[in-house]
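Minutes, project check-in
Item: structure for the 301-residue chain
Input as provided by the requester:
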Amino acid sequence: MPENSLSSTETAEPVVKTKKPRKTIGFYLASAWISLVMFLALFGWVLPTPQWDEASYDNLGVAPFHPSHILGTTNDGYDMMASIVNGAKISIIVSLVAVLIGGGIGSFIGITAAYFRGKYDFAVTMIFNIMLSIPNLVLSLALLSVLAYSDENNPASMTRRVVVLIISLIIVIIPILGRIARGSALQWGSREFVLASKSMGSKNFFIIRKHILPNVAPAILAIGFLAVGSVIIVEGSLALLGIGIPGGASWGSMLANGRGNIEYSPHEVYLPALCIAFTVISFNWFGDYVRIKLDKRESKI
């Protein structure tokens, strides 16, 4: 055998295949909890639980693991399990609808502002900065106080309170995700494939849809998971202030109703608080996971 072939064989380095990072236990725990919450929100009505707004006057304030009420009841006799299931539906639907609609509107405005620039971008940036300078809770509080005002003579209906709450949360989400979308679109808008598409005469919205949006979407998705958790916290805070969803219909409303009974039946507060905490932590974990994957993806480009 020739010496050259021997030397090349001896000096050849083995090819090492890099393994993909394994998912941690946190990923599976967050996945399991979010799956459970989504199941309760969508299919909780199939569970054999009593009506969440019907009181059992024979079981007032019973502790968890009662034979008839596995999570106990409130001091007013409402079943905690049924309230948790109904609260999941209200809290998750409100947060997801607000983030999806607000994120869609904010992303469209942010991407188009970054692409077209000029006076349009200046006006959008100024409006976003003004809206972001107002604390989220204060902005939602002001909108709910004006649009869903309620008193003894003119009480606001549940539907009106929910709709106004979603609208106020949408307005809060728009500048947050809009700024993220604008910053990411500025980065991708100057790439060679976008400039090449422009030079070939492609239409603006075709370039946005085909080249910019698919690359901006992961960053929006990462912040979107964080936004869902933030919206759940805002909804609970508004309920504690007395202007959120009333009657114990959401997790935040359950906290507001049970805070006066924490000495006698602490599970009225601890159970919805744990549901809010686990849900927010799970969505935040997913947001961090998507962000890490995004950072690795962009480092290869």
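Outcome recorded: Confidence is low (pLDDT under 50) at residues 1-19.
No further action items on this chain.
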